[in-house]
Amino acid sequence: MTDIRPFLNMELHVTVWLKGRCKNCNTTIKRKIFDYGTLPYKVLEEKLDETQHTIEKINCPKCSMENSPESIIYFDEDRTMTIVEQKIDYGNLMFTDDPHSESMKEEHKQRFEIFKEKETEFWEQYTDYAILNWRDMINELQDFEIKDAFTKMNIETHANTISKLRKEVLNRINTIEEKQLFWKQANDYFIYHHLLEIGAMGWDVAKDIQYYGKKRMRFIILHFPLGEETEQLRTEWIGSVIQKNREDNAFLFRRISMLTSELNRLRSKITDYVHQIDKLKAEKTKLENKLHQAYESINRFENKKFVYNRDIADIEKIHELKSFVNDLVQELKEKERIIHKLNPDETSTENAPVLDENENKEEVTGDKFSMLKGKTVAIIGGRRQEQAQKEYVCQILTHPGESLDQDFYQTLKKADILVLLTQFIPHLTMWEAKAYAIENDKPIYYTKRINIQKILSDIVE
Predict the structure, then answer these.
(1) Are 411 and 437 in contact (CB under 8 A)?
(2) Total-model pTM
(3) Which of 135, 269, 364, 458 is buried most deeply by CB count within 10 Å?
(4) Which residues contact 308 (CB under 8 A, 6 or more apart)?
């Protein structure tokens, strides 16, 4: 462990970066999200405490795929080195619209006042605990902590190693009063300049156990004064520091430890799900590109019928492409299902602008529309049921296209002509309708209009 006090006046230029790996092309991607400028360490520490960084998607510069970042980096620009890189735990993120998180942030700002109210009681308990476990507790102190305490107590020492310093404490600090004073002086940095300065929301319990010792952190986690909202953090920490013993409260501690492990497992699973969703979206995009290429190939072969009669090789090629399209659509459905399962609140339907329902209205009458008589036109996308009840020269069927349910396939089956309102349907619906139209040789049209009369006019033209 390093005493950072000599570095408090050192100036640092720190920037904050989000880092991840593209799920589509495997490129390492980074994006700078904040620049603190050049500040003395002490001032920078205060700014770090006040600033909240939003975790946002980052785009791959190579393929433009949007990805969730995997870690956040604090970078020293002057020395061109990473200060710390922290993995993003999506299961433990705080959301700005969560009232509970806002209360915790408010308590974080008031942590010095909260500690002050119980400061005397805390030190009495802490020193009593240290005296009862004196040798073990002394063995958790670092060299600069012991030297600080000796200096404040006017005790000279020539010890130059941590083991000799600890031995001197055990030999020279003997009375209860000396032990109480020494323990408070030796822990001044740990309590006031580490735990209080960082605040409970920023503690890294695993590292603190490694640096400051398990017995010290055990007492801190059980007894350090916290606000009401922040108390829930204490329950999570208990499972990592309480030993499984045979005392009366052993069952309770074992249960807390078990629940803490389960909570950490679920948080890790949420993080995995976030990156799995990105990976599935990348695979879905690749499938859509393959579908697009397959449809272009099919259209090229279909259009050949106006030039010459198809030979057997063309027919076989078209059937192969249709089969390929069907396989891609099925795989795309599976990706859509998994994405919806992992993130049910997300919908793939694109937001469409509000169009003028009365745009260029005209009556669908006269010989111009005779080709539509006796036909059934299916309009997929949006909510056109009320419009469809009016009288037209042909029968109008509608479906919102938001899901591939039984009504969707019945609508496709009954229709002679298919119309897709492209701004109102998800990609999967569009591909499914395209595949059905190709397989069954039904004409299919794409439009951004929403007025049925105008749509029919466009079909005739």
Answers:
(1) no
(2) 0.47
(3) 364
(4) none
